[in-house]
């Protein structure tokens, strides 16, 4: 599978409610990503782009699950609270809303104000709580359950198996293996290439010829030393950057971020050997985390870098 895509958080193929929520953040469908890769990137690696295998390694079904169905989310309970909560007037105030039979009649001005406030808060929180907890939940689930070499968790295991198949196919076709990741997919791939694959004999043959990490938090994770192979010896204090991955593991790496994407982070100055560059998606703050993946210009830049990296490698092999 010469071109592989590894998605980020909050992707659930079987969750219609979540899919609807992510549309607010302009999540780009896999079909659109595949079409761009076929039309623009595949020609950079093959004279027959229509024949290039393009696949996605899906891990969303292994992500966060709420044991109580999201009962911890405030907005899911506010509507019921607004309808059912009886507000007790402060001491000394009479509740003129009580009818002659002692039951509440028309809500008081104070009650109506509280209900309006709660309704406003609910309207503000609900779209965020439909997405942000899943986003954070997927990150925390991966970190907590990723395991280690010899006993990888379910998410890194699926990525390892997918890349093993892709690497074998690329070798049989004598074509390079290109990987595109988005958001958390970048951190997962980094752990796989630096820890799981090198330390597991079965997967030591995995090699990615070119990796593009879009909207990732790889640099942020390394600053916090959250990777399995993170080493405190590399830091600003020591003046030493993280060395590049060996050539037999990774050929080239482009880390692309956007000033308006608050969930994207730089990798330059932290890692050696990374092509760290901004991409101006010209979108809006809430939607730019996915903007790269729907932009034809992004894929043209991706293809140019893939072609240059492969040509450089070929030139080095001939010298």
Brief digest:
With 319 residues, this protein is an alpha/beta fold. 41% of the residues lie in helices and 10% in strands. The protein has helices at residues 16-22, 30-41, 75-84, 109-129, 132-145, 154-173, 184-196, 218-223, 288-291, 296-318, and strands at residues 3-6, 54-57, 147-148, 151-152, 178-182, 210-214, 253-257, 275-278.
Rounded average pLDDT: 86
Strand portion, in percent?
Answer: 5-15%
Structural class: alpha/beta
Number of helices: 10
Structurally, how many domains make up the residues? 2
Main CATH class of the largest domain: Alpha Beta
The H-and-E topology, N to C, reads as EHHEHHHEEHEHEHEEHH
Radius of gyration: 25 Å
CATH superfamily of the largest domain: Alpha/Beta hydrolase fold, catalytic domain
Q: What are the segments in which pLDDT stays under 50 over at least 5 consecutive residues? A: 82-90, 93-97
The CATH topology of the largest domain corresponds to Rossmann fold
The strands making up the biggest β-sheet line up spatially as: 2-1-5-6-7-8
Overall, the morphology is globular
**What's the N-to-C terminus distance?**
29 Å
Q: Report the count of strand segments.
A: 8
Q: Major sheet, described briefly? A: 6 strands, parallel
Q: Give the helix level as a range of percent.
A: 40-55%
- The CATH architecture designation of the largest domain is 3-Layer(aba) Sandwich
């Amino acid at each position: 599978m010469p071109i592989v895509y590894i998605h980020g958080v909050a992707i659930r193929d079987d969750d219609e409610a979540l899919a609807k929520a992510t549309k607010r953040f302009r999540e780009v469908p896999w079909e659109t990503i595949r079409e761009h890769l076929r039309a623009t990137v595949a020609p950079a690696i093959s004279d027959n782009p229509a024949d290039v295998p393009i696949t996605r390694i899906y891990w969303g079904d292994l992500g966060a699950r709420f044991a109580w169905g999201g009962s911890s989310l405030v907005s899911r309970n506010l509507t019921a609270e607004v309808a059912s909560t009886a507000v007790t007037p402060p001491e000394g105030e009479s509740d003129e809303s009580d009818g002659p039979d002692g039951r509440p009649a028309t809500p008081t001005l104070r009650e109506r104000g509280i209900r309006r406030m709660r309704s406003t808060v609910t309207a503000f929180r609900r779209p965020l709580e439909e997405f942000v907890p899943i986003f954070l939940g997927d990150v925390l689930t991966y970190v907590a359950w990723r395991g280690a070499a010899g006993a990888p968790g379910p998410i890194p295991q699926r990525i390892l198996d997918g890349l093993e198949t892709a690497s074998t196919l690329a070798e049989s076709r004598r074509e390079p293996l290109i990987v595109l990741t988005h958001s958390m997919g970048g951190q997962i791939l980094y752990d796989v290439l630096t820890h799981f694959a090198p330390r597991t004999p079965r997967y030591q043959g995995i090699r990615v010829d070119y990796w593009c990490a879009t909207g990732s938090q790889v640099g942020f994770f390394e600053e916090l030393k959250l990777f399995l192979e993170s080493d405190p010896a590399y830091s600003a204090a020591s003046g030493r950057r993280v060395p590049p991955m060996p050539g037999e593991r990774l050929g080239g790496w482009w880390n692309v971020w956007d000033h308006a994407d608050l969930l994207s982070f730089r990798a330059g100055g932290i890692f050696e050997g990374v092509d760290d560059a901004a991409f101006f998606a010209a979108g809006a703050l809430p939607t730019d985390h996915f903007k790269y993946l729907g932009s034809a210009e992004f894929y043209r830049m991706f293809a140019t870098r893939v072609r240059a990296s492969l040509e450089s490698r070929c030139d080095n092999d001939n010298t």
